[in-house]
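Appendix B, example 12.
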Amino acid sequence: MNWNKKYISSLVIAFLSGYGCAKLFPLHKSITKETMVKEYISLGNKKEIYKYEDMDLFIYADGVDPNGVYNRPNGVIPNDSLAVEMAKIVLFPIYGRKNIEYQRPYQVTLVNNELWYVKGSLPEKAAGGTFCIMINKSDGKVRGIFHEK
């Protein structure tokens, strides 16, 4: 009988100490608005006291940045999947995510190995038109955005 009391009391003490530790040091903390980390901080538009072109001449002997966009053999947008992602980034704020995703599958064409032409498509007998966007392969600049009927 005496042994059972010691055994039960040690089990109770172990349980209470384990429960107390679990309350003090939880394994999973819930993320609230106060603990959430921002993905980025916008610093806005600020004026600089120098021009980037002038600074490049001082930094690089031949005036060409070896890591710049124009020294990439396949360009900044080397493949069709990246061209589609770039198109989505540009078009979602303009036409809306739902509208652009409705126009899948996208038709992607590389014109003269220098210009990505991404166009939406609609199901047969659907009313409306599709988006079109042209993106430079070499530097990622958007050359044009329009909507076809």
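Helices lie at 2-24, 52-59, 80-95, 97-102. The chain has a mean pLDDT of 79.
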